[in-house]
Amino acid sequence: MDESNSRYDHLLRKAEDAKRGGHDAWAVQSTGEKVAVALVLNRADWLMEQGYTIAEAIERCGSGWVAMIPQVARQFVDQE
Question: I want to staple 26 with a disulfide (CB 3.0 to 4.6 A). Which of 11, 14, 18, 53 is the partner?
């Protein structure tokens, strides 16, 4: 498995954990994971809790993660 697939799968798993487990599951993730997952799940309230605006969260994630976020978010919609 190449690194980009591994990173995508990691983000997807973390987002699934947070969607299923809610705030408690999200709260135990690393800061970078929290920011990316909050963007995937469209949880501005979780970003605010971490002290990030949406623009700051995008910057914090970096281009590699930001490129994956829309695809992971779409996968959630498709699974529902």
Answer: 18
